[in-house]
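Subject: Protein record for review, amino acid sequence with backbone structure tokens
Why sent: The fold of this protein is of interest and is recorded here as tokens.
Enclosed: The protein record, placed directly beneath this head.
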Amino acid sequence: MRKKVFCVALALLMCLMIAVPTFADSKPETPDRAIVTASYGLKHVSGSTYKMWAKVMNPAGENIIANLILYDASYNYITSVSCSSSNTIFNFNKNVNLSHGTYHLVFSYVADTSSQSFEKTYSI
């Protein structure tokens, strides 16, 4: 009798060990750092008009503030444009009149879990 009870208890224990992991939450309680990607640039429109533009991919839908800042060759501020969004993809832009010279375009963002800044240099 004792052997039978032991075997039944062991069988129940094994069933519980197999079943319990299936009840566990498959999502972690603390989400991993979201991956935000962006493309940005300075595009010639016509004459002396150029478009500062950015496209931000935000798969986690975090709250993001993104900025484009344009500087001249000596890093004197020229203009900027900002956008705040929690959309998974968003675009923003601004037209600016530029003469010949060297310009620095800085893209930066601040999200719920990360922040970064990037720079490109353009000769016009």
Remarks:
- Residues 37-123 form a domain with the Immunoglobulin-like fold (CATH 2.60.40.10).
